[in-house]
Amino acid sequence: MSDKKIKIIDSVMGSGKSTYAINYINDNIDENFIIVVPTKSEQQRYKKALDRAVFLPNLDDCADRLLQSFNWAVEDGKTIVTTHKLLECWDSTSITEIKKRDYTLILDEVIDVVMPISIHKNDFELLESTGLIQLESVPDKEGLHKIKAVQGKEYEGKLKHFLEQVRHDNVFQVNDKFHVWLASAEKLQAFDDVFVLTYMFNGQQLKGWLEVYDIPYILHSIAEGQLVSYQKSSGLQFKNLITVNEDKALNAPYSRYGSLSVSDYEKSKPAKISKLRNGIRSFLRSHSGTDARLNLVTTFKSHETVLLREPFLFCVAGVKRPKLQEMTAEDKAERYCFSPYNTKATNLYRHKAAVAYPVNIFPRPEIEHFFKRHLSGHDSTTFKDLYALSTMIQFIWRSRIRDGLPIDVYVPSKRMRGLLQDWLNDDLLSAELT
Fold this sequence. Notes:
By secondary structure, this protein is an alpha/beta fold. The chain contains 17 helices and 17 strands. β7 and β8 (144-149) form a beta hairpin.
């Protein structure tokens, strides 16, 4: 792939990105494909739509058996539809076999390619002073250093796990303070061609990651089912289908810039959480007036049980929370109205008519500082806003809006609501989205 550019297909949800990918695969019968999707349901969708035999790894297998079956399928040149989870496990054998057979990668939705790593300053300095690690400057990347493990040095203490990560040669220090793990470039570079299907690419990790590794890419969009040059798109076309709740009583308590962020939730007293819970209930019952099975609500996973108490989010009476562990994903979508705030690329909630999004999204400080240095054309605030907006839009698009049907949306955070309204009015950061 050294002389080719990664093809980023950046188009709004519902524009036909997956349909284009399926048609492309069906039209190129002599090519080998690996399709990486976020969920099992998307695996099944691709399998049914493709005009060829498809191998689906058994994701319930243990990690070793899962990887082994994947590698065998690659050796046989099979078309494989798998999930992001397995992509993380590919080893050197996987990469070697993919290169041999000139595979094309279809990556449906981007993956996390930058992850924060926590290590106390004193512990890091200890590893440095004892000669176990050393910093190596990254050419032309100001403020970025690769952390290298010193060969021949043995260590069995409490920092062993950190050192093991460093030995994989993809841990970096940012601004002499933060530490991040970067996915290896080898996996993408193993492919003959790569397509990435996404929306709002400029607000995602993958953009900065590609720039750090100097991997060339080209932006495209989908128009009338065809691949075209990149076209900026906003939510203007959906404005008449999305009713954003503007009730002052429901929104006024969350006007601060940081209201409803993770840290704000953690500092909130029970009375504040109760008030938010009542606001969500009021939106669903009085403003939207939808049947319970048509509601979709989120929060940060750590606060799910506090904010969303029984029987508030159970669409069918008599369902108790312990039963959730026994439900299939399809049952949960019908009988329990919660989904994580960063849910994307699933069709299980496409019947939902009312969406409550009571969160305020910010990237982790390590991620923010990494992109502040290494994401061209953006300042820190712009990246944070694009990151927050893209996460929120992906969640909202799990609902029936993806089928062109109207929805009611409650976004109590003033910052998040403003981003959504600007996007719907085609006012959001237009220069940065081009």
